[in-house]
Amino acid sequence: MNNSHHDKKTLHQSPQNILENIYGYSEFRGNQLAIVEAAISGRDCLVLMPTGGGKSICYQIPALVKPGTTIVISPLIALMQDQVSALQQLGINASFLNSTQSNSEQSSVLEQVKMGTLDLLYIAPERINQPITRQWLQNCEISLIAIDEAHCVSQWGHDFRQDYLLLNQLKSDFPNVPRMALTATATPRSQQDIVDNLELNDPLKFISSFDRPNIHYTVVAKTDAKKQLLRFLTGHRDEAGIIYCLSRKKVESTARWLNDRGLTALPYHAGLDAKVRAENQLRFLREDAVIMVATIAFGMGIDKPDVRFVAHLNLPKSLESYYQETGRAGRDGQPAETFMIYGLDDVVQLSQFIDNSNANIEYKLNERSKLDALLGWCEIIECRRQPLLAYFGEENHEPCNHCDTCQKPPKTWDATQAAQKLLSCVYRLGQRFGLAHTIDVLRAKQTEKVDQFNHQKLSTYGIGADLSQNQWRSIARQLIVRGFLLVDASRYNSLQLTSTSRSLLKGDLSLQLREDVSEPRLKKEPRKHTNGVSAQDSALWDALRECRKQLADEHDVPPYMVFHDATLMEMMELHPQSEAELLNISGVGESKLAKFGSAFIAVISEHAEAV
User: Fold this and answer.
1) How far apart are the C-alpha atoms of 453 and 563, rounded to whole Å?
2) Residue 320 Cα distances to 180, 377, 410, angstroms
3) What is the Cα–Cα distance from 255 to 300, expressed in whole angstroms?
4) Which of 161, 237, 437, 478 is close enough to 152 for a disulfide, judged by CB 3.0 to 4.6 Å?
């Protein structure tokens, strides 16, 4: 930092000046300016903004306008370090306080807060909950307290954390300091929980649309998961992505399998050695075209803007989890794809997790209804985006024309008779057997188990021989989703009839089911380059990325902290020849111009001579 801290706060008084000179953007997006002004005027705020919507600017700019230090409460140490590095690249005085620092490093940070020379201090909830930390900060000038990932305070949210419940004490300890709660995912019920549990004072609520129009959604039934995944990945060669799996074992085997096929895939789960985990995360952030294969232990607060796809090889726990995990794709606003493969085994496994947990009955029922909502969403035959947004309280959206079901509506068929056959077979088997055996009986397969129980004598033996095993699995999965069948995890996953199956068996109902397609319905046109770069521009594009990679390595930061892809795209299109022209490009502020400008101008003029 060349200029002293207080000079800086008088230099850039207005939020607009700060946005242009420090961040390099010409205008605020959405609610950003209104939120910044509310925080500067001292109001508590609840900010709901989808991932990639620019939440951090909402508290970073007030921190630069107001005297004193802004405290940012964030649950993840890796994210704090990331955010602080990014701010330092912009020439902003920021630091964090956490267990990775030595005592002397921590003392030096606290000294800066006391002196009023630190704009932003990132701190974990468990640290600010310590009375000694709060007492210390009460003697300093605190301008704003921002509580990030605020959905963690809601017991009905998908990511509840006990430490967040104590943050209501900030109200009495810092009575004159405005607080801002921020999250990307919260149903109406969780939003109310955030306000109540944090005891926000008559907060202004800024609820942005949950819609992420640049994301394309695809969900397919599992036939051959590895083949289906590989077919999807052919459209994403040389791109960064995340693949989520339910178990650690599956993470390891999937990463190995992808590496054998020439892709760079790294595993990430809580059981890995911490050092390996940190190294893999760093490679994902700093290299291009790395695929992270992970459990849900990975990703909260991962700020990599150019993740081009997120794939799920198993069902997530709920629509909130799904929305949050897929939201890690396309944070830069460029096109991104999500892809989910799911099967009956996922439904059974997630049901068992719920049934076997030690939680109370109300919690189990809530988890069960979340799982049902997700399953229903997987099987729909209309637009996917409408019900996804409705789940978060946003009604009245038009069909999106940007999901698998809009682009190619699934075929349906009259499955009434087939469903009756399956349900009566379950009934004849005494509701004591699982799906695999039920299908064997329907298809007249001669197995040891059929012989052992004499099931070849049943009236339903062989009545379903006209359909394949996969077709029966699909029918069963859809009957479970629609509530005509139950899987009893406590009795060897045996199939059970429900009260609604009676009307279907009696013929009072007819049933249309979706016809499963074995090929994923993906719009795949060969792309020359990641972001649709044309052949004649690709040489300059590659040169700009190479230049960015070298500068990133020199400064020991991920490439996107030098410049986002969108900024490089603009350079590629506009060919700026001078520092003044470069400053007009979105994402180029004064600090970055001074650090990196000349290197990029050199690459662009070299390219112009070569052409």
Assistant:
1) 67
2) 22, 12, 25
3) 20
4) 161
pLDDT tops 60 at residue 88: yes
Look at 162-166, 297-301, 369-373, 524-528 and tell me which has the smallest mean pLDDT.
524-528
Asked if 380 contacts 405 with a C-beta cutoff of 8 angstroms, the reply is yes
Helix residue ranges per DSSP H, 454-576: 469-481, 501-505, 538-555, 559-562, 565-574
pLDDT in the model for residue 531? 54
Distance CA 557, CA 191 (A): 35
Q: Which of 602, 561, 559 is nearest to 579 (CA)?
A: 602
Q: Are the C-beta atoms of residues 373 and 318 closer than 8 Å to each other?
A: yes
What 3 state SS string does 326-363 have? HCCCCCCCCCEEEEEEECHHHHHHHHHHHHHCCCCHHH
Q: How far is CA 410 from CA 138, 379, 464, in A?
A: 60, 10, 23
Q: Which residues contact 212 (CB under 8 A, 6 or more apart)?
A: 50, 51, 52, 327, 330
Quote the pLDDT of residue 521: 41
Going along the chain from its start, the domains and CATH numbers come out as 5-207 (3.40.50.300), 215-407 (3.40.50.300), 412-514 (1.10.10.10), 535-610 (1.10.150.80)
Structure tokens at 317: 């726990």
Record the tokens describing residue 21, joined without a space. Answer: 């000179």
- Tokens coding 520: 């994923």
Collapsing DSSP to helix, strand or coil, 217 comes out as strand
Beta bridge partners of 494: 488
CA 208/CA 28 separation, integer angstroms: 14
Report how far residue 93's alpha carbon sits from residue 120's, in angstroms, rounded to the nearest whole number.
7
| C-beta pairs of 369-375 under 8 Å, 24+ apart in sequence | 370/158, 370/317, 370/318, 370/319, 370/320, 371/317, 371/318, 371/347, 372/481, 373/318, 373/319, 374/315, 374/316, 374/317, 374/318, 374/319, 374/322, 375/315, 375/347, 375/480, 375/481
pTM > 0.85: no
Please name the amino acid found at residue 509. Answer: L
Nearest Cα to Cα of residue 278 among 260, 263, 292: 292
Task: Using alpha carbons, list the distances in angstroms from residue 106 to 86, 228, 303.
Answer: 20, 50, 25
pLDDT band of residue 301 (cuts 50, 70, 90) is: low
One-letter amino acid identity for 296? Answer: I
**Strands 485-488 and 412-414: what pairing?**
unpaired
Pick from 16, 124, 122, 17: nearest CA to 69: 122
Would you give the DSSP letter of residue 403? B
